[in-house]
Each structure stands twice: as structure tokens, then as C-alpha cells.
Amino acid sequence: MKNIQKTMKKILVLMVMLAISFSCQNHLDDLRDDPNAVTSIDDAALFTKAVRSLFQSTTDESVSRFAGHYGHYFVAGSTARLPDQYGDGFDVLYNSMFSEMYGGVIRHIEEVLTITSTEGTKNEVRHAIADVIAVLGYAKLTDAFGEIPYFEGGKGKTQGIIHPKYDPQELIYEDMIDRLSSSITILKNADPAMAYPNSDPIFNNDLNKWVRFANSVRLRLGMRLRDANNTLSRQTVTQSLSEPLMETNDHNAFMIETEGNGNRWFTMRTGFPSIKMSTLLVDQLQSTDDPRLAVYVSKDGNGDYNGMTNGLDDTAFGNSNFAARSDMGLALSSKESKLYLMTASEIWLLRAEAALAYDNDPAQANVLYRNGIETSLNQWEVDATEITDFMNSPEASLSGANDALQIGTQMWVALVPNYFEGWSHIRRTGYPIIADRTAPNLAQGATNGVLPKRFLYSSFELSSNNDNVLEAISRQGANKIDTPVWWDKN
């Protein structure tokens, strides 16, 4: 009996040892296979992530701390307002804005571009759509910093490029326009089944809208080149005007954030630090009886629209009664408020500028200008009677006195809440006019009171990719916030 028990124990021990050995072997096999490796990547999921990241970037720190202030749309409280004083001591923020865009939008979309151009998973329709998103991501980066890693950018995972070269902004713009042109050609005759039938958070796989969107982005880039490369600008604008563009609010590129607290402006309006709308914006809307005032701005505790002055020094800010100023309007800052990448109103106003600048046709410019304003009013569901009243006002027609200023100012208004694009618009056109700070109660900062032109390359980027960053600085100019990017000639 004892022998039988001993034998049974030996068998049990052997079975346990075999099981452990088998388990260990499986574990070793898993290690050899790399547990972090993905054997089957869903490019649709990556595409959706990239798109969501791009929309979320319209409310990130590049906007809430910098572009919204620089564009004189609002003033944030607490330490979030410090960039409004034109300082440059924000190294950690510059690095996070740079790395988060590459780590979010660019990384995901570069993976999509790799998958959709590789044999076995190649799909030129998806590749064309992804290229539009990539262009928008790179456009924001280059408009923020100037020269950036573009041709080698975002390829650390797909191609192992750890220290990418920086590229001149002129070359970046030329290539972005080429990419959009290729996407338009492909998408015009594409089969929607080959696109993203269940993974398109912008246009729900409507390729007609994607063509209009891609072409409208091309028009935006073409007009941005106007003072830097007039020949390419004219060529690009002409091409864009020959293809379908965004014309109605059904064509708008928007998304409603459904995760977390929803639209980030909701948190900024209801939490800390709070945001108060700019005196410049409030005064513009009030002085012209613009019905978008009630959309963009909330009334203060006294039932008035009360803006906050941008750029106050610490003493003046302390005496400003900041808490009593007008908050951001509910239409912009509710949980379910839309985030916009581009709207039809912007495109009508770009066309108005082009008609005036390139065709010397004030009459046509006026028609396009009016279309832009009316489309913006309808975008925000302004009451029909108020729309009629405003469209009959002097502000809604070009006067001939300074049409470029009128178009530029209305563009600035229509771009809300895409505040980053508003700052870029001011840098390019000079409209609306943001005066240099000479008053004693305004902070002049690191720019001697001049509107900042770009973000800085961070100390981390300078240390980790030093040679390439220094080469970019040697071409572009000093790593300062008042060094203009290539297309900024104003």
C-alpha cells in the first residue's frame, strides 16, 4: 500500500512539473513573440483615434493658454493667463504641446498611412482620407513652431527614425498641398465601401464631403501662402476654386466629444481657472449689433456683456474684477458643444479675400463676403429676424473704404471657436489690428509688446535632437516667440 502511495505521489509531482514546464515554455514563447507587438492592427481604430485627437487639439493648451489669448478671444485666470502677458518662460508647455501632437495625431495617422500603403493591406481610398488628417496635424504643428520634422516626422515606430530632420516650412507647405491634391483626385471617383464605413467620426463616410473638405483645406493653405509665395498661392487658389468646396453648414467638419466631461471649454467655464471673453471681441460684436454676441458671450451678473482686457500687468489685473466679467457663451462651452476643424463660413470668406486680392473684383468679393457672414449666423442658429436685420446692416456689406479689414475682421469672428486658426489668421493678414502694447498698464513681455509669432523649441527637443533643431534655427531665425514663421510677413 505504501509503495502504491509513493508511486501516486511521484506521478502527481511529475504531472505538476510537466505542467510548470509547459507553462514556462509558453511564457518564453510569448517573450520571444514580444508581448507589446500587435500582430493585426486595425487601421480603422487608429484612424478614429487620430481624428478624435485632432479635434481635441482645438481645445488643448496651445489654445487655452496661448492662441486664445494671442488671438484676443479670451483671458484665462490664475497662472493660465501668463502667456497673455507675452512671456516666454513656458518650456514644459512648449515641449508637451510639441510631443503630444506627435504622440497623438501624428503617430496614429502615420501608422494608418503605413498600413494603407503596404502590400497586403494597401487601400488608396483610406490612405487618401488619412492624408487629409495628416496634413491638418502637420499644418497645426508647423504654424505653431515653424520648421518641424515633417518628411521624417512621426516615423519612430514605423521606420525607427528617432532623430528626425527638421524641414523648411516652404517645403512642408508645398508637400501638404500636393498631398491634398492627390487625395482629391482619388476620392472624387472612389468607392465608399473602400473607405471607413463604420469609423468616420466626421462625415460618416460621405466621400463627397471629404472631397469638399480636402479642397477647402487646400484653399486655406493656398491663401496662407499669399504673402510668402504668391505664385504658388495663386496656382493653389485657382485649383481649389475649380473643385467643390464647403458651401453649407452640412459640410462643416465638426465633432461632439462624448467622453469624460465632454467639450473641454465646459470644464474651463465651470471649473478653475475660469475663462472670460476678450474686450476686443465683445466690443466688435456690440458695436455692430452682431447677434453672435449672445452666442459667443454670456452676460455677467448684472445682465451686461462685459469683456476682459488682454495683456494687463499684475497690478491692473488685480484691480480688474476678473470674476465679474463675461464667461464664454453656452453654445461654445456646454458639454455637448461642437468642436470645429473647418466651417463653410471660413471658406466663403477666404473666397471673398481671393476675389478682392487676386481678381480685383469688389462686387464678387461682396457677394462671397455676405455668404460667409450669413452662413456663420446660420451655423449658430441665430433667429431668422436677427439674421435679416444684421444682413441689412452696414457691417454685412463691403464699404469700399477698407474691404480687406472688413473681410479680415469678419473672418476672425467666424473662426470662433477655432481659436488657434484665429491667431494664425491675425498673423497672416494683420486683421483685426492688434495694437502693440504701449499703455502703462499692459505687460510688454519678451516681445516688447508685439504679438507673439510662434512657440519655442523646448530645451528637451534641443537636447534630444540638438543638431537638427540648431539647423532649423539657423535657417528660420532665433528661437524666440517674436521670430515669425515663413508665411508670416505682417
Brief characterization of the structure:
The chain contains 21 helices and four strands. It is mostly helical and 490 residues long. It comes from Gelidibacter maritimus.
How are the SSEs ordered, and which strands pair?
Elements: H1 2-33, H2 43-56, H3 61-70, E1 74-76, H4 91-115, H5 124-145, H6 156-159, H7 169-188, H8 207-224, H9 230-241, E2 253-256, H10 264-270, E3 275-277, H11 279-287, H12 293-296, H13 314-318, H14 330-333, E4 338-342, H15 344-357, H16 362-379, H17 384-391, H18 403-414, H19 419-429, H20 459-464, H21 466-476
Antiparallel strand pairs: 1-3, 2-4
Helix pairs in contact: 2-4, 2-5, 3-19, 4-5, 5-7, 7-8, 8-9, 8-15, 15-16, 15-18, 16-18, 18-19
Question: What can you see in these coordinates?
Answer:
This protein is mainly α and 490 residues long. Among the domains are: 43-244 and 448-476, Alpha Horseshoe (Serine Threonine Protein Phosphatase 5, Tetratricopeptide repeat); 267-333, no CATH class. The protein has helices spanning 2-33, 43-56, 61-70, 91-115, 124-145, 156-159, 169-188, 207-224, 230-241, 264-270, 279-287, 293-296, 314-318, 330-333, 344-357, 362-379, 384-391, 403-414, 419-429, 459-464, 466-476, and strands at residues 74-76, 253-256, 275-277, 338-342. It has a two-stranded antiparallel ribbon with strand order 1-3. The chain has a two-stranded antiparallel ribbon with strand order 2-4. Helix 8 runs antiparallel to helix 9 and helix 15 packs antiparallel against helix 18. It is globular, with a radius of gyration of 26 Å. The chain starts with a helix and ends in a 14-residue tail after the last helix. Residues 1-39 have low confidence and may be disordered.
